[in-house]
Amino acid sequence: MKLTENFTFDELTSTSHNELLEANRESAKAFMKQLKYVAGTLEEIRAVLGVPLRVTSGFRNNALNKAVGGSATSGHTKGLCADIIPVGLNVSDAFKSIIESKAQCPSLKKCIIEKVRGSEWLHIETKTEANQPQQFFITTNGKTYSEVKA
Ligand SMILES: [Zn+2]
Question: Which residue(s) pair with 134 in the sheet?
Answer without folding.
Answer: none
